[in-house]
Amino acid sequence: MKTVHKLAIGAVALAGTISLGAGVYAAQTPIDIQNRMSGLVSAIATKFNLNPTEVQQVFDDQHALNQQQMQAQRQDQMKTRLDQAVTNGQLTQAQEDLIIAKHKAVQDFMASLKDNTPDERQAAIKTETDALKQWATDNDIPQQYFAFGLGRGEMMGMGTMKAGMRNMHGTFQRAAK
Known about the structure:
It is a single chain. By secondary structure, the protein is mostly helical. The chain has one domain (2-176). Helix content is 81%, strand content 2%. The protein is built from six helices and two strands, in the order H-H-H-H-H-E-E-H. The protein has helices at 2-47, 52-87, 93-112, 118-138, 143-146, 161-176, and strands spanning 148-149, 154-155. Strands 1-2 form a two-stranded antiparallel ribbon. A hairpin with a 4-residue loop joins strand 1 (148-149) and strand 2 (154-155). Helix 1 packs across helix 4 (118-138). It is elongated and about 60 Å long.
């Protein structure tokens, strides 16, 4: 039984690390998008004789709106899955409430890292991963409900961890450049 418990804790730690690393990836994505879109903004402004600053503002506003809508949709999906787990007796209502609060805390934590260097992010993520592992253990949260998904604000199961590791690999490659 102890081996199963150790494996579960290891899986929680790995999932937390993947989630946090992918969150860094997500935090970098708007900058990448902005850099790629600047050429398009310039081309549209030139083609239609528009002010490039105003065109950029339209792109930025639309991007922010899309991000808010996707975030709301993911939170609704997460809440639905957690509600079902409570209904099925897999979680208590108190555990669901803890997961939702921790999810918000992790989102805030990831947002706070956006101006850090890659080394600072990595150190902070390591510390947060250890804290998340202990939090899950202390609150008897099963891994499939604890593993916050790929920085996108949703829950993930083990089936999506491969995608998370691919995303993290790309994040660390970019950070090393």
